[in-house]
Amino acid sequence: xxxxxxxxxxxxxxxxxxxxxxxxxxxxxxxxxxxxxxxxxxxxxxxxxxxxxxxxxxxxxxxxxxxxxxxxxxxxxxxxxxxxxxxxxxxxxxxxxxxxxxxxxxxxxxxxxxxxxxxxxxxxxxxxxxxxxxxxxxxxxxxxxxxxxxxxxxxxxxxx
Length: 160
Hints:
The protein is of the alpha+beta class. It has a single domain (3-152), classed as Protein Transport Mog1p, Chain A. 24% of the residues lie in helices and 39% in strands. A hairpin with a 2-residue loop joins strand 8 and strand 9 (106-113). Mean pLDDT is 87; it is low at 10-26. Keywords: Signal.
């Protein structure tokens, strides 16, 4: 199994864990890839997960239930390749996903399943790639939350 398939499965698994997680409050979350402040109404349901060099953080809005995941993995893959493979995996899993579109070096795809909407952003610096995903009845709450993101490498994350 390729690193991309493993990481894609990790992203999907992380999204599923959002629904099962028990919230724990925190004011700021910091990793080797980013720092983010948690404003009122946002929680970190579980600590940042790290395995095999990959980092995954999950955040949830307590008011509308929307969620944001940040997944970074060490792999010399382009953002385009990660986006295309992830979209193929989403479609295989039954999601309606748009073709990835590039803007400022970051690829974006939107997806839906039932009433849920989502958007994923894919970035790469040539050594690591990142997938930033927003889920909810609307993605606007997550985009507003991500304005608090302070990346340590701008090539990995979208700007809001």
